[in-house]
Each structure stands twice: as structure tokens, then as C-alpha cells.
Amino acid sequence: MTKKKVGSVTPEERDEIQKLFKRHVGLAELAKIITADNVELYEKVVNDLGEVNTTFQNWWRSKGEKYKWESTENGNWEINFDTCEIFLNF
Q1: Who is most buried in 1, 11, 42, 57, counting CB within 10 A?
Q2: DSSP letter string over 25-89?
């Protein structure tokens, strides 16, 4: 896989996506440990995970359009949280 720097975001924008990323990871881990007995909690976690994923994808789409980052059909962007740099993996 090739990795290419295609841009950067502001520290505030980085904080937005980092918060979403951490929430996604936390919900995904929670979904793994919830037992089938607790259907109500499981459904809430899955719904929250869906909402976070949608917001996460919208953030990437919005920033990609704003900054006109290079993209490829099978590629994906990633962020270096320390430097605010955006990379394209393809």
C-alpha cells in the first residue's frame, strides 16, 4: 500500500475527527462485550455507532471537498493526529 501526503487540517478540525474516532472505537468495543441478554442496550450502542459512522464519513467528505484532497477509487484518507497531516492510502 502506498501512502501520500495530500493536505492538512486545522487543530480544531483535527480535534473534531479525533473525538469521533475515539467515540467510534469505544462504541465498537462496547458492542463486542454486550451480551445478547441486553437487547435494548445493544440496539442503542449499534444505533449510536451508526450515527457516529455517518458523522465520521460526512466529516471526511466535507474536508475533502473543502481542501480538494487528492483521492482514488480504492483509496482512503487518514490523519496523523500529532501533525494534523492528511494522507491518502492507495
Answers
A1: 42
A2: HHHHHHHHH--TT-HHHHHHHHHHHHHHHHHHHHHHHHHHHHHT----TT-EEEEETTTTEEEEE
Which helix (DSSP H) or strand (DSSP E) does residue 1 occupy?
Answer: none
Kindly state the percentage of the chain with pLDDT values over 70: 100
Dihedral angle sign, alpha carbons of residues 77, 81, 85, 89:
negative
Q: Which three cell numbers stand for residue 81?
A: 493526529
| Beta partners for residue 8, in sequence order | 85
Range 12-38 average pLDDT: 94
Q: Residue range 4-32: average pLDDT?
A: 97
